[in-house]
Amino acid sequence: MLSTEADNKFAWFNLGFIAQSRNQPDEAIGNYDKALAADADYKPALYNKAIVLESKAPTTSIDIYRKLVSIDDKSSTAYLRLGMLLSQSGDEGAARDAFKAAIQLDKGLTSAVPAKYRATPAPRSSTPAGR
Fold first, then answer.
1. Which residues, 6 or more positions from 9, have their beta carbon under 8 angstroms from its beta carbon?
2. What is the CA radius of gyration of the chain?
3. In the prediction, which pLDDT does 118 show?
4. Which of 32, 68, 70, 120 has a CB 3.0–4.6 Å from the CB of 45, allowing a cystine?
5. C-alpha 53: how far from its chain's center?
6. Neighbour-count burial of 56, counting CB atoms closer than 10 A to its CB (0-12 exposed, 13-18 middle, 19+ buried)
7. Which has the closest alpha carbon to 89: 127, 121, 60?
8. φ, ψ for residue 119 (rounded to 5)?
9. Considering all CA atoms of the chain, what is the largest pairwise distance in Å, rounded to the nearest integer?
10. Where do the TPR repeat units fall (predicted)?
11. What is the residue extent of each domain of the chain?
12. Phi and psi (nearest 5°) for 126?
């Protein structure tokens, strides 16, 4: 099938996902790259490729997550994963911004954000109401 449809991003993505699930990172990356050759902005392939590269090539992974959120600024999990990598790289300010974006998009991600990056609520006044 792929010999006649070499630019079928969906098929290449699926093959990449299968390889990724079988812990075959190099094969997964190769298949994601073929999907991205057909469509450079194909979000599922970008996202999964970034995940595969997180431990092997974190800087490349960061670049991919940045591209992904520039294409889709509603990708809360991409912001979360970007924040994790930025934090590990020592870029505290950028990590804080990424985590803030993730939480603003999906409050359910708050518990996945390291505590030091979670916004602290404003202190409550100790004056009783009505005074």
1. 35, 36, 38, 39, 42, 45
2. 19
3. 86
4. 32
5. 11
6. exposed
7. 60
8. -65, 135
9. 77
10. 9-42, 76-109
11. 1-53, 54-114
12. -85, 0
Structure tokens at 76: 């809360």
State both tokens at 44: 């599922």
Q: Choose between 127 and 45: higher pLDDT.
A: 45
**Unique residue bearing structure tokens 């490729």:** 49
Coil/strand/helix, residue 64: helix
Tokens for 101?
Answer: 């974006």
Which two tokens mark 128? Answer: 């009783």
Provide the percentage of residues in the chain whose pLDDT is more than 90: 84
Q: How open is the CA angle 34-36-40, to the nearest 5 degrees?
A: 155
Q: How many residues does the chain have?
A: 131
* 1-53: CATH, from 1.25.40.10, 3.40.50.150, 3.60.120.10, 1.10.8.60: 1.25.40.10
